[in-house]
Amino acid sequence: MAPIPLFPINVGHIDDVQELKKVKKAAIPKRFVRDVAERPTLATAPCSPLKNVPVIDFSKLLHGNPNEFHGEISKLAASCEDWGFFQVINHGIDLSLIENIAKVGMDFFMLPLEEKQKYPMAPGTVQGYGQAFVFSEDQKLDWCNMFALGLVPHFIRNPNLWPTKPEKFSETVENYSKEIRKLCKSILCFLALSLGLDRDVFEEMFGEAVQAIRMNYYPACPRPDLVLGLSPHSDGSALTVLQQGKGSSVGLQILKGNKWVPVQPIPNALVINIGDTIEVLTNGRYKSVEHRAVTHKEKDRLSIVTFYAPSYETELGPMPELTDKNKPCKFRRYNHGEYSKHYVTNKLQGKKALEFAKIQPKEAL
Q1: Which member of 76, 120, 141, 226 has the lowest number of beta carbons within 10 Å of its beta carbon?
Q2: Which of 44, 19, 45, 43 has its CA nearest to residue 32?
Q3: Residue 41, burial from CB neighbour count under 10 angstroms (0-12, 13-18, 19+)
Q4: Where is the Fe2OG dioxygenase domain (predicted)?
């Protein structure tokens, strides 16, 4: 998670968007209004099936016959190459746990503002309640409230930020996160197999993987055409697991073919996306894809996101098995802790963070 800033950061006044919703003003504060080029085009009709994010049936990977297994592995590889996103059904996580984490998340955001502000997200950090990735007083803001916690390894936890309300919040987060961690390890095994690698290669490389959780609450907005729920970005993780609220509006959009494609929620499915780390390790074969969140005029939306990444000590670079004279290295070797620090100390700006690892043309000579 975020290091302590080395210098004071003046982020100016940041309105709490849930409080803005309560006031019911039609006018949007200037800091939330995006420049014309950044404003979302809100979908009025559902996507055709050909434009939907692929769906992976995890039960076929775990328990399928050979034909089912190979078919699903091929679909997984194509998803990672063409989309960088896929939805997982039959993932094996108890549905009551998925419902419970959504309930405690929603209950937290429904607490009075003064209660939530007991766990403030300090400027320049990404744990606590507030808005992350804000570094100046004139930076545009997202129409979103966040609450984030570091989980693993233990030293990234800040006990002062774990709330006492709602009841069983911490217990539910712990139980949910253990199951998501198991899922991430399994997905990485199948990603390795889809690449023709040893199934345990990522787990052995990653060491004690870093894991964090972030809950995003997007209140209804009177002018969803002027704001963004979350700025466009790719994730610095290896894998990101997104749980969308039951019956929530379509909020997640991914950039494909220079167009923003909405991700239609599937009941009880989990959305998985490839992070920058996997793009680097696969030398660009599996891609981390730019994505954003939009808001809705009438519906609130809750999402619960888990980030899973290598230990901070891990040295990363394209895997030798996935490079040759016809596929030279696109990325340099680097320390993941350094990249993580770089990622969380810059505002979200498309895939700009990944330039940290790219080999520039003069370096390739």
Answers
A1: 120
A2: 19
A3: exposed
A4: 208-310
365 band by pLDDT with thresholds 50, 70 and 90: very low
* Sequence-ordered alpha helix ranges (H) in 85-231: 95-109, 113-116, 169-194, 201-206
CA distance 365 to 163: 53
Residues β-bridged to residue 334: 316
**Strand partners of residue 252:** 293
Cα 151 to Cα 20, 61, 98, distances in angstroms: 31, 28, 18
pLDDT in tens, 82-115: 999 999 999 999 999 999 999 999 999 999 999 9
Asked whether the predicted pLDDT for residue 232 surpasses 90, the reply is: yes
Contact yes or no for 126/344 (Cβ under 8 A): yes
The overall pTM is greater than 0.90: yes
What residue type is assigned to position 219 of the chain? P
CA nearest neighbour of 211 among 156, 158, 169, 168? 156
Whether the CB-CB separation of 295 and 143 falls below 8 Å is answered with yes
DSSP symbol at 54: P
Tokens read off for 265: 């929620």
d(C-alpha 96, C-alpha 138), whole Å? 43
Which residue type occupies 65?
N
- Residue 54 and residue 83 in contact, taking contact as beta carbons nearer than 8 Å: yes
What's the rounded Cα separation, in Å, for the pair 17 and 22?
9
Structure tokens at 324: 């040759």
Q: Which two tokens stand for residue 290?
A: 């730019």
Closest among 136, 138, 117 to 128, alpha carbons compared: 117
Residue 339: in which H helix or E strand, if any?
A: helix 336-344
- What is the rounded distance in angstroms from the CA atom of residue 262 to the CA atom of residue 39? 15
**Pairing status of strand 315-316 against strand 334-335:** antiparallel
Q: What is the Cα gyration radius of the chain?
A: 20
Q: Would you say 240 and 307 are in contact if contact means Cβ atoms under 8 Å apart?
A: yes
- Cα–Cα distance, 62 to 69 (Å, whole number): 8
